[in-house]
Amino acid sequence: MRRNFSFIQWPATAVAVVIACTGPSASAAEITSAYTKIDLETCFQLESAAEEGTFGGSWTCPGYSGLQVLVSEGDLRMFVSFGPDAENEPAAGQTLSRFNTINDTLEWRLRDGVPFATILRWFPSLGEGKGTGSVLIVTQLKPGATCQIGRIDAQANPGANQMSRDLADTMAGSSDCSLPPIVPGNKGIFQ
Question: Would you say 97 and 126 are in contact if contact means Cβ atoms under 8 Å apart?
Answer without folding.
Answer: no
